[in-house]
From TrEMBL:
This is BRCT domain-containing protein. GO terms for cellular component: nucleus. InterPro entries: BRCT_dom (IPR001357), BRCT_dom_sf (IPR036420), DDR_Transcriptional_Reg (IPR051579). It comes from Arion vulgaris. It holds the Pfam family BRCT_2.
């Protein structure tokens, strides 16, 4: 599978070597990209612990006549790793050990970006259970992902003491394979709290 990158010959190399082009992250073993990009495919692939490789993996595999070990060709993007304060190899190793949101129940409100449909797709690979409706009773490991536009509809969760977090709780959390409740807390005690993470620029 490819994200943020594709040339005319890449798919042919895959099929010539006996591979199959995956149509979903669920069926994918390798994700090919020329950079770290916060697409649904990339975040889902990282959460699943896929081998995220550079195009050089395909070129070298073509020359060898067989698929080579992808661990030797992990995509390199020092600028993005520095910006989001993570190491891709370390994060992939953690993701392969345990899905980051295992045991969590998560609801996403309507105005969140990426939108709830995209967030649900990403969350499939984090181990979380997706909640279709707003939770209104406290239960451990329940989280609402929201934004300032949806403050009012979060009131049932806020009153129940359920943490309401920015989308970065999930997005940056997947990149780092760490859950940061302090930096990305959005609403608390029936009032909006701006956190240091709120104004971060999100790149795709």
């Amino acid at each position: 599978m490819f994200t943020g990158y594709l040339d005319g010959q890449s798919e042919k190399v895959v099929t010539d070597l006996g591979g199959v082009m995956a149509t979903s992250v669920k069926d994918c073993t390798h994700l090919v990209t020329d950079r770290i990009c916060r697409t649904v495919k990339f975040l889902s692939g990282l959460a699943k612990g896929l081998q995220i490789v550079s195009p050089q993996w395909l070129e070298s595999s073509k020359q060898a006549g067989t698929f080579l070990d992808g661990h030797m060709y992990l995509v390199s993007d020092p600028a993005m790793e520095k910006q989001y304060k993570f190491n891709l190899a370390t994060s992939l190793s953690r993701a392969q050990t345990r899905a980051i949101l295992t045991g969590y129940r998560i609801h996403v409100t309507k105005s969140v970006k990426p939108d709830p449909v995209q967030m649900q797709e990403i969350l499939k690979f984090t181990g979380a259970k997706y909640l279709k409706t707003m939770p209104n009773k406290y239960q451990e490991n329940t989280v609402v992902i929201s934004c300032s536009n949806d403050h009012m509809i979060c009131q049932p969760a806020i009153k129940a003491g359920i943490p309401v977090m920015e989308a970065e709780f999930v997005l940056t959390g997947i990149l780092r394979q760490e859950l940061d409740f302090e930096s990305y807390l959005l609403f608390q005690d029936d009032s909006m709290s701006e956190t240091s993470g709120k104004n971060k620029t999100r790149k795709k």
